[in-house]
Amino acid sequence: MIQLENVGVDRQGRSIIAGVSTQLEAGKIHVIIGPNGTGKTTLLNAMFGELALAQGQVRFAGQTLLPGKARGKFLHGWRDTFAYLPQDTAADIALTVLEVVVLGRLGKLSLHIDDETLAAAMERLEQAGIAHLAGRDIASLSGGQRQMVLFAQVMMREPKAMLLDEPVSALDLKHQISLLDLVRRETRARDWVTVIVLHDLNLACQYADNLLVVAHGKIQAAGHPRDVVTENLIEKTYGVKVEVLTDRAGNPVIQPVSGI
Ligand SMILES: Nc1ncnc2c1ncn2[C@@H]1O[C@H](COP(=O)(O)OP(=O)(O)OP(=O)(O)O)[C@@H](O)[C@H]1O
Question: Where in this chain does the record put each ABC transporter domain (predicted)?
């Protein structure tokens, strides 16, 4: 479980997130939604130790991240059990896809890459459905293909917590579903604490066990989408008129209502 207690982060003297407290259970998918610039990436970065906490604390795997910039050995140990896929997956680097995936084990690699590591990297590529790209240069791939390669790379870390910032933003519908299905399967099977930032509200409602609605640097609502999503909440959060319908599985479907 990741526990956030009264977490706050400032940037350039401005409070970006403040007073964030929540518990993120293992084996579940926690989806963060919210308008642009409201602190979703900041929240992931705070959990990863990338941004210093101004207040509060984050607890995970028997360790506590406190205010101030975590450094050196502590930060290394803290991040050891996290996998983090950032929003920006640009990769202007002369490596093949297989090499990029192997780098997911960076902390454990020696000069000689053993057969087990190569087999594990190929297995992750197969799981992501992109084994056929193994020999391609990463720089020659499309944005969506790169997103899947970097997901295969973070799976190589064998994490306890998976932090994914808009992991399907460049993927077509079929690949969005296959990646999120894979994330759900692995989250359940490996007991990851999975936290995903998504902009697609309907994918968020379909995949979240726990939906965190972030606006103005605070969690405005949290819980199962069926329990938290209302027309009023979405309208207040995004300033857009919507209708909330229900799909066959009973999950909310958010339909914007045209102003015409
Ligand atoms: N390097 C930075 N220096 C100062 N302020 C920053 C920096 N990066 C982000 N911010 C500010 O922090 C706020 C939150 O940004 P953040 O990236 O967390 O938002 P977000 O909710 O993830 O947005 P998006 O949906 O657009 O990705 C924004 O107001 C942004 O301008």
Answer: 2-241
